[in-house]
Amino acid sequence: MKNSKAEISAKERRREVLKNLRRFGGKLYKQMEKGEFPQIKMPSRSTENIFYSPELRQYILGNKTQRRSSRNIRHIRPFTQLVWAGYFARELTKNRKTSTLRDVYYSAQAYDMSFKDQSESNSIITDLETVTGFSREDFKVFPEERSAVFGDLTIEYTVPGYEGKQLNLMSHPDGVMIGPALTSAEFVRTKADKVIAIEKGGLFTRFVEERVHRKFNALLVLTAGQAPRATRHFIHRLNKELGLPVFIFTDGDPWGMHIAMVIISGSANAAHLRELTTPDAKWSGVWATDIVDYKLPSDPLTEVDIKRLHELEKDPRYEGELWRRETKKFLNIKKKAEQEAFSRYGLTYIVDKYLPTKLKDTN
Amino acid sequence: MVTFEEISPADFFYRNRDIAGFTNPTRAIFSCIRELVENALDASDLSNIPPEIYIRLSRENAEEVQSELGVGVYKLRVMDNGSGIPARHVPSAFGQVLFGSKYKLKQARGTFGLGGTMAILYGQITTHKPVQVRSSTGTSKTYEYKLVIDIQRNRPLILDRKIHRNKDRWRGTIVEFSLEGDYFRAMPKILEYLKQTALVTPYADIEFVDPKGRLYVFTKATTKMPPPPKETLPHPYGVDVETIQRLVRVTEYRTMLDFMQRHFHRVGGGTAVNFLEFAGFVRSADPKKLKHEDIIRLSQTMKRFKKHFGDMNIEKLEGFTKTTRSRSMLDFMKTHFQKVDKNVVLRLLLAVGFLRTKDPRKLRPDEIVRLVRMMKRFNGFLPPDASCLSPLGEELLETGILKELKPEFIAVSQRKPSTYSGHPFIVETAIAYGGNIPKKDDILIYRFANRIPLLYDEASDVSVRVVRSMKWRRYKVALDMPIAILVHVCSTKVPYKTVGKEFIADRPEVKSEILNGIREVARQLQKFLTKREYVKKKTRSLTIFSKFLPKIAKFSTELARKRELPYITKILAGILEDYGESVVWHPYKKVGTNIIINAIVQTVQATEVPIESDYSSKDYIRIYVLSNIDQQDRIVHRSIKYEVETIQDTRFERQLVYRTAICKRVIENERSRLEWKPESPDTKQTFLVTNKQS
Question: Active-site residues of A: which are they?
Fold first, then answer.
C-alpha cells in the first residue's frame, strides 16, 4: 500500500521525536561515561523568564536557562523522573501507544519511580516538553478529553489500526471527541468557511440542533470551559492548515473572556511551546456591551470577578482596543451574563438574531 | 546554777553527728560504707598498689522482728590490701576521734581523721558492740584488736588484742563492726556511690556483697595509678597566725630569711627578701655610719654586680655616703642608683651584710599578726605548685568513664593547677555522650572531690550551678540528650561547705576553673555532634544518590540505545572520596558463573578525614575493610598484610557498619552493571502488553 500524505507526515513527526529523545539520553550517557554527574540545561520556566512577544502574539520563554544537575541532592529525584519520563515517552512513541497524564502517574510506579502526586508527574512532563521542545501530545501523552468538534470536515486517521481510514466529523450529532486519534489525524477536505468555538456543552448541542453548521457554514468546536491544549492545537491547525477564520463564543464574564484569550494568545504555562495559539481568532461574545445592548438578564460581579478583571487590565495580552473596552465596561456595569441568558428571548434567538450580527461585527 | 563542763572531741561529734553525715539510719549506713571505703582507698594509694576492696554488709539476727521496716542491725566488713596500720597506732586510729595520718598538706580523700572513727562511733552507740580491726603492714605478724571508744575521754578501750602469724606476708586492714541502718532505703545511693567510685578509681577492684547475698563486682580497667601526691609546705597565702606561732616555736632557723625559705611553699631567696622588705622585717645599715672597710667591701661586692653598677670606685662611693641624707642603705641605694633593679640592690646589700632580718623566735605577737597580714597582701609569691595534688589524669579519667558508662563519645580535660586562698587545686572535667548514659530531661552531673563521689545536696554544688548557667544550645546540646558531665576537684583543701563532704562551695577561683574546664570539653562535644550530624546527612544523601543514579544510568542507556551501562561506579566512588574515603578497585574475577569483585575502602589519612578525626593513626589501620570478607580474616593490600580485627569499641563499630554499608552499595552497583543486558527489542513492558491490540 502506498503511503498517503497524512501517514508520511505523522511518521516524520514520530521519527523526529525519537531522534530527539535519543539525543537527550546520549548526552546523559556521555557525561556518566566521563565519570561526571549527568546534568542538563533547559530554558527556565520561572515567571521572570516568561515574556509576551507582540510579534508572535503569545508568551515565550526568555534566554535564561536553568541547570538541573544530578549532583544536587535536591535535583536528583526530579532529574531521575525526567529521564524516566523520556524513557516512557520513547516507549509510547516507539510502540505507537497513547497515554494520559494519569497513566503516566501510575506507570511510574511500575518502574519504582513513584511520584508524590499527579501534579508532580504533570510538571515532570512539562519539563520534558521544555527540554525536548516537543509537546506532550507528540509524546502521546494526553490529558483527559472533554472537548469535541462537529461539522463538515473529513479527516484521515494515522493511529495504528486506523491508518488511511477517513471520517466526516458530521457523522455523529454529539460531535467527535478531540482525542489523540483526532489530534494526530490529517485534514482531507472541508466545505466550511469558518470555525465557531463555544465554551459550553449546552450551547454546542443547541447549535448542532439549530444546524448552525449549515446556516453559517461553520465547524463547531466545543471547548468545554478552558480549552485543553489538544483543542487549542486543533483550532490552530484549522486556522493555519485550512485557512478558516475562528470565532469564539463564551460567557460574558472575565473567565469567559479569558477562555477566548487563551485560544488566541496562549497561556504563560505553555510559553515553551508553539502551535497552540490562533492569534487571528476573534472573540465574538458575550461582551459586556452585549449585556447592555441586548438587555440580557445578568448577575452582579463578585469580588473575585472584579479582582480578576483588574489583573487582566495589567495583562499584556489585553492591550487590544476591544479587550480594553470590554474590561472597562465590565468594571463599569459590574454585571455578567451567561451564554444561556439569551434564552429569555426564546431558544432560537441566539442563533437567529445574535449570532449573525456578532459574526458580521467581528469579521 | 549554770554548770560548765568540758567535752571531748568524740563527745562533741557524738552530740553533733548530723554534721558528719549520720542524720538517720539510711544516711548513716551509706556514710559508714563510704568512710571505710575511702580510708581503704587512701591506704592503697599510699602503698601504690592497685586497691582491692571487699565490702560485705550482712544482717545480724535476720529472723529478729524489727521495730521499723527496713531498719535493722547490720554487720559491715571492709577489707583492703593497702599499706596497713602499724600495730601501735591501730587503737588510736580506730578508737580516737581526730587522730590520723592525714593532717599533712597533701591530697587525700579524708582530711579530718574523723570519718572512719565516726562510723565506728555510730556503730557503737547504736548497737553497743565493739569494733574488730585486723591489720598488717606486711611484716611477719598481723594484729587483731577488739576495742570500743571511750566517748567522754576520746580514748580507745582495748578489749582484746591478738597477734597472728602472717605467713603470706599479707598486707592490709580489715575492719568489722555492727551498726543500725536501713540498707534497702540506702541501697540506690550505695550502689551509685560504688559505681562512681569505680569510675573515678578505674585501677581498683571493688566487690560488694549486700545483705541479700548479691555480689556487685567492679573490675579494674587498668593497673596504672596516678602518681602519689607529695607532701608539701604551707603556702604563705594559706597560713594563719596559729600556724606561724607553731612554726616559730619549733623552727631551728635564726633569721627570717631562712625561716621564710624553709617553712613555706615556693619561697626562694629572692622572694623571701623582697617580701621581708615589703613587710618591713628588714633592718638596713645607716650609710653615714659606714666605715672605710665597709665601703671597700661594698665596692668589691659591686664588682660582682658589674653589669648593674658599672665601674664604681671607692672614692665616689665614699663621697656619696658623706653627702647623702638617707638614713638607711636601702634609701641610699635607691637615690644614688636609681636605675638599678630593686632585687639586685637587695641581693647586694644582703651579700655585704648591710641588711639584717630578725630572729624568727623573737617575733612579738603583734609582729606575727603583721607578718600574716603582709603575707596575704604581698603579691610576689609564686602560686603553689601541684605536686602535692594527685589528679586522676586525662587517661585514667577516660578509662574510668569508658569502663562504667561505655559512651559513644568522650572528652576529658585537666586544667592547669590554680589556687584559692593559698590552697592549690586542679579541676578535671569530662563530658560523655551516649552509651549507658540514660536519657533524662537534664544533663547528668557526676561530682568528685579528691576522688570521692559527691552524691548529696547536688543543687547547692558549684559544678551543678555552673552547668545550669551555661548556654548549652550554643554547644548543639539539647537537654534531653544522653549526656554526662564529670567534674573532679582535687585540692589539699577542698572547699566543702559542710563536714559531711557533700558539696563544694562557690569559690570564684574554683568556679571559674570548673567553668573553663566544662567549656573546653563541651566544645569538643560540639565538634562531635556537628560531625555526627554531618555524617548522618551525608549518609542520607549517599543513600539517595545510590538509589537514583543507577536509574538515571539505566534509562539513559535505553534512550541512547547503548549496549552497556555507563560506568557510574566511578561517580559513586567519587561521593565516597568526598567523605575522605578512597576506593581502590581490583579487577574482577570470573569464577564459574559468579563474578567476584573486591574493594578495599580505606581512609586517605586520619587528618584529612573530617568525620574520622577522633581516631589516631594507630586506629585507622584497623578500619581497613574488605567488604566481602569476615572479621578475623587476613587481607593483603598494597603488599601489606592486615588483619580484620574484631571491633570492641562501640565508636569503631558504628563507623565500620557505616563504611561497610556504603561499600556494599557501591559493589552492588558495580555487580549489577556488569550483569546488565539491554532489553531485547521484543521484550515489552507490561502496560504495553496489556494494551496490545490484536
Answer: 106
